[in-house]
Every structure is written in structure tokens, then in C-alpha cells.
């Protein structure tokens, strides 16, 4: 096989950037291009809804790499030019500006899910880029009322940040309390109480029905139960969608795409579907064990840092094994039919790390399973 003279990485966020760095680290010296639909350099997304939005960080601090590190890659960054189609046979990518680029690594990741009318209504926001966070931060300086749609990790964290900036906030979502699916009833109940103590209005078990507008700007939200909410700012945090529209009509589905998506989805907060990472092998070649790293994510809300390890099933039994919720510091262990399956720490990072060891056996596969795979 002839050596590859150039590589195009479609997507310049965490996965794409890690791919480019891996190529250079493994000795690839050819031309390297990263194509990105967003007009800005790659950033670390978890701080966008917290430290960047509340003004604690300058925007440059959330960039994934320094200017010097990006220069050292000796790569061309093509920003603000989305991939719109892919010819799998020729490995050609066509872009919105008319470019045609070759030799492809697919790392476009996911984009924010939107409400149907969101693009046409001023005052509605998602938080996906540094630009998104900067614009929203400015609007929060004067917004009379804020409605956050979506009661998962991003929605709850954004609601907390907006409230800390002094805005009246209503958090709306289909769950009975925020993050119930991620945390279970015990910890989610504690989180709901934390939000209420800090002045967030929680409306659970409802969905948005209609956005009300005035002169092209959002003015309110009608919910599925008929509730009417005034809103100067609406923040949409209803999940994500694969950014793969540009692959439609390519003639065939690349078998690499799904594997690559799983392998590169690890940085920062996890895939919202909560799937464990890919199987890997470690150790001496004659005694290797396939393993899956313990899934984890964290979130900072008001004065609480929550660290969650494992995947919590709906019927898992939750038990407080360290600390006391009344003191604002505790650890919860979740036990399913096959034993411990999750650990949550609330302002107890050291104890949470120690309890995480109890989950290792669940995600490290037995040797006979590894051999069979």
C-alpha cells in the first residue's frame, strides 16, 4: 500500500484534535487538515455552561490547546466551512464553500438538538461553542426571566448558572425532578431541593408546546399542560444528535464511523446515552484482559460538585455509604441485580474515588470473555 500523502479530519473538536495529535505522535509527517463547521478553534465544552457562562473564566481558558500546541501540529485548520457531502469511493468531502478535500477521518461528533422554530427566534440559545456561551452571558446581564428547557445535566447546570447571575429561572422538563434518569430518586431529590433553595422554579413532567414571540424575539413559552411562562431568554438543552447529515447519499455507510464514534467519545462529559466505552486490552500479550473503562461524568451546580461513576439502572437500590446529605457531603452506592453498578459523590471527591474501585469488576471483563471476543 502506498503511503498516505494527506489526511483530512472532518471535525476539529476533542475527537478530531485527538486524532490529529495521534497521527503526529505515531510519526505521520504528511499534510494534515482539520475541517470544522464552527468558526472557532476547538474548546473544552464542559466549562461552557458553568465557568465561561458565569464569567469566572476568560474564553481563551476553555480552549482545548494553546496556540503553540496547535502550531506544533503543523496542520491546516479550515474553520467555519461545514462538510455537506461525502463520496465514499473517492474519499472526497465537499464543503459549503465549494472545497473538495480527500482522505477522510470522520470525527464530526454530535450537534445540539434544537426546537423546530429555534433558528428563527432571537433570544433562544443552545450552548455548544464559546460563541454560544459568550452571547448568552451577555443576554443574561439584563434578561428579566429565563426559561431552561431540558432537565438533564446540561439543563440543570445551566439553570444553576443563570440563577447565580441573579436571573429568575424556570427549569422545564419531562422528568419528575432534574436528572432523575442519571441519578436515581434519592440523589435527584437532593438536587431538586438544592435548586429550590436557591430560587429555581422547577416544572417537571411537561414539555414545551409553543414559543411565543414578539417582533421576532422570544416572549414566552406555552407548556404541554397549558402553563404559560414569560421569557426574555430561552435556553434549549434537550440533548444532542449525530452530526452526520453530510454522509447521507454517500453510496454506502462506512463501517469505521460507528466504531470511531464510540472510541473517540470519551473526553469530557459522556455520551448522553450512557453507554460504556470501547473494549480495550492491556497487560502482557499472554495475559491480556479486555476491559471497558468505568463511565463517568461530573457536574457543578451551586455549591455542589457531583461525580458519577458507572451506569445507574432504573431499578438500582441507592444507599448512602459515606457522609450525610444534611451536611451537604455524601456518597451513594447503587446496587443492581448483579451487584454494585454505580457510585455518586456529592462534595466528597476522595471518598468517591475510593468507592469507584467497587465497580471495576463490572467493567473489567473476565479473561474467558476476553478470549471469546
From TrEMBL:
Keyword Repeat assigned: no
Cofactor: FAD
Record has Plastid as a keyword: no
GO terms assigned for molecular function: oxidoreductase activity, acting on NAD(P)H
InterPro entries, A to Z: FAD-oxidoreductase/Apoptosis, FAD/NAD-bd_sf, FAD/NAD-binding_dom, FAD/NAD-linked_Rdtase_dimer_sf, Reductase_C
One Pfam short name: Pyr_redox_2
Record-annotated Reductase C-terminal domain positions: 297-364
Basic residues bias (residue ranges): 276-290
SUPFAM superfamilies from the UniProt entry: FAD/NAD(P)-binding domain (SSF51905), FAD/NAD-linked reductases, dimerisation (C-terminal) domain (SSF55424)
Positions of the UniProt region annotated as Disordered: 247-290
CC per GO annotation: cytoplasm
Bias-annotated ranges (Low complexity): 249-269
FAD/NAD(P)-binding domain segment(s): 6-250
Record's protein name: Reductase C-terminal
Amino acid at each position: 500500500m502506498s503511503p498516505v500523502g494527506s489526511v483530512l479530519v472532518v471535525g476539529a473538536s476533542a475527537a478530531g484534535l485527538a486524532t490529529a495529535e495521534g497521527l503526529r505522535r505515531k510519526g505521520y509527517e504528511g499534510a494534515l487538515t482539520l475541517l470544522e463547521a464552527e468558526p472557532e478553534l476547538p474548546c473544552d465544552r464542559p466549562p461552557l455552561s458553568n465557568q465561561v457562562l458565569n464569567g469566572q473564566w476568560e474564553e481563551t481558558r476553555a480552549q482545548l490547546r494553546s496556540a503553540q500546541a496547535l502550531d506544533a501540529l503543523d496542520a491546516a485548520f479550515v474553520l467555519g466551512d461545514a462538510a455537506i457531502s461525502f463520496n465514499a469511493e473517492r474519499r472526497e468531502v465537499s464543503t459549503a464553500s465549494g472545497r473538495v478535500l480527500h482522505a477522510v477521518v470522520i470525527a464530526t461528533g454530535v450537534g445540539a438538538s434544537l426546537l423546530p422554530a429555534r433558528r428563527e427566534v432571537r433570544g433562544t440559545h443552545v450552548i455548544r461553542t464559546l460563541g454560544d456561551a459568550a452571547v448568552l452571558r451577555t443576554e443574561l446581564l439584563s434578561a428579566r426571566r429565563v426559561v431552561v428547557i431540558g432537565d438533564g445535566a446540561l439543563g440543570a447546570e445551566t439553570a444553576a448558572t443563570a440563577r447565580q447571575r441573579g436571573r429568575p429561572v424556570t427549569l422545564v422538563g419531562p422528568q419528575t425532578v432534574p436528572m432523575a434518569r442519571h441519578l436515581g430518586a434519592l440523589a435527584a431529590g437532593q438536587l431538586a431541593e438544592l435548586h429550590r433553595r436557591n430560587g429555581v422554579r422547577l416544572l417537571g413532567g411537561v414539555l414545551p408546546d409553543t414559543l411565543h414571540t414578539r417582533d421576532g424575539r422570544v416572549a414566552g413559552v406555552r407548556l404541554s399542560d397549558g402553563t404559560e411562562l414569560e421569557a426574555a431568554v430561552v435556553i434549549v438543552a434537550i440533548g444532542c444528535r449525530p452530526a452526520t447529515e453530510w454522509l447521507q447519499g454517500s453510496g454506502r455507510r462506512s463501517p469505521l464511523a460507528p466504531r470511531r464514534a464510540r472510541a473517540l467519545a470519551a473526553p469530557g462529559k459522556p455520551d448522553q446515552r450512557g453507554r460504556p466505552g470501547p473494549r480495550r486490552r492491556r497487560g502482557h500479550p499472554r495475559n491480556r484482559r479486555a476491559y471497558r473503562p468505568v463511565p463517568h461524568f461530573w457536574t457543578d451546580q451551586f455549591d455542589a460538585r457531583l461525580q458519577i461513576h458507572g451506569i445507574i439502572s432504573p431499578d438500582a437500590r441507592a444507599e448512602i455509604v459515606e457522609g450525610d446529605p444534611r451536611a451537604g457531603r455524601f456518597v451513594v452506592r447503587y446496587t443492581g441485580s448483579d451487584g454494585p453498578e454505580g457510585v455518586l459523590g456529592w462534595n466528597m471527591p476522595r471518598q468517591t474515588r475510593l468507592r469507584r474501585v467497587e465497580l471495576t469488576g463490572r467493567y473489567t471483563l473476565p479473561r474467558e470473555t476476553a478470549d471469546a471476543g
